[in-house]
Amino acid sequence: MPRDDQNILHIAPATELEEERIHTLLRAYNARHWPKNTPSLSLTARVEGELAGGIVAYLVADTVEVEYLFVQERFRGRSIARALLARVESQAQERGARKILLNTYGFQAPGLYRHLGFQEVATIADVLGTSWHIFLKRI
Q1: Which pLDDT value is given to residue 113?
Q2: pTM of the entire structure?
Q3: Region of 30 on the Ramachandran plot (φ > 0 left; ψ -120 to 50 alpha; else beta)
Q4: What DSSP character marks residue 79?
Q5: What are the boundaries of each domain within the chain?
Q6: Of 37, 57, 63, 122, which residue is 20 to 30 A from 27 by alpha carbon distance?
């Protein structure tokens, strides 16, 4: 019987475009299990027209889930992350949200999140060799 190449599993490194596609597929799958109204709260921050950073966040029921928050190094120290989080929180509260969830690594910004009132709910030590993976929430 001849082999059907469509039924042979091939595993290979993902391209950047394929990584984005996988993320899109995961979001679509999750959306089927979340309440119908899960708006994006994602924002960008620009300084003199240049992309300084952004936040990717979604409102799921009464909870904001922050997927990413990033500020380019040369723009750090200007309260951009604080402003992005504040705007997301404001939009979410207008829609009845009561919680914000996010995670970070020890080399990223756990101090900033603690300063902004987030509480650690779980920490995994020795991630990436010498770092911590920290899960936080704010109610």
Answers
A1: 93
A2: 0.78
A3: alpha
A4: S
A5: 37-138
A6: 122
